[in-house]
Amino acid sequence: MKKKIIPGVAIVATLAVGGVAVAGGGSDNKGEKAKFDSAITLNYNQGPYDPYDPYYEEAVFAGTVTPEPANKAARKSENGLQKCTKKRTVLIKNLDLPKGLRAYGSTKTDADGNYSVTASDEYAEDGTYRAKVTKKTKVAAEIKCFGGKSNEVEVSTPTDGE
Within a domain: residue 7? Predict the structure, then answer.
């Protein structure tokens, strides 16, 4: 009986080792998730001055989110740039305020990575502002988009129509 068991065990062991070798697949990065860094810009346009209007009707924070491949899998990704460009959440904060009160506004990027937040309905206080794009992970597509912070923008109020 031992002779029958040993060949059976040898066949199972051979299949198990062969299966692991096939499943390993080598080092072609197929299982690696495509990773993208995020570059983000921020601009503030106050619009024209109107002495009869307490708010600047055309004031706007705007900028662009641009994904940049961070690894080999990202450079080979067919739709990673598009997934990391559109519908990204952008938060704008006033850095001069205490931490719990810094949030100014938020929005999502369009298909080209552009975003804008209107600043006319609420007067943008003087201060230093920064935009932040949040991280985003697409599990099914195996894509990871890292967050990022923009340049700082100074906002100051002209008092006499400057």
Answer: no
For residue 55, tell me if it sits in a domain.
yes
60-70: average pLDDT: 94
Domain that holds residue 75: 31-155
From residue 109, alpha-carbon distances to 74, 112, 114, 119, 130 in Å are 20, 7, 5, 17, 16
Q: What is the DSSP string of 97-162?
A: S-GGG-EEEEEE--TTSEEEEE-SSSPPPSEEEEEEEPPEEETTTTEEE--EE---EEE---SS--
Cβ distance 133 to 38 under 8 Å?
A: yes
Q: What are the structure tokens assigned to 83, written together? A: 């997934």
Residue 84: per-residue pLDDT: 93
| CA dist list (Å): 144 to 36, 101, 126, 141 | 6, 29, 35, 9
Tell me, what CATH number does 82's domain have?
A: 2.60.40.10
pTM of whole model > 0.70? yes
Per-residue pLDDT tens digits for 106-135: 999 999 999 999 876 556 678 899 999 999
* Whole-number Å distance between alpha carbons of 98 and 158: 24
User: Does residue 100 sit within a domain?
Assistant: yes
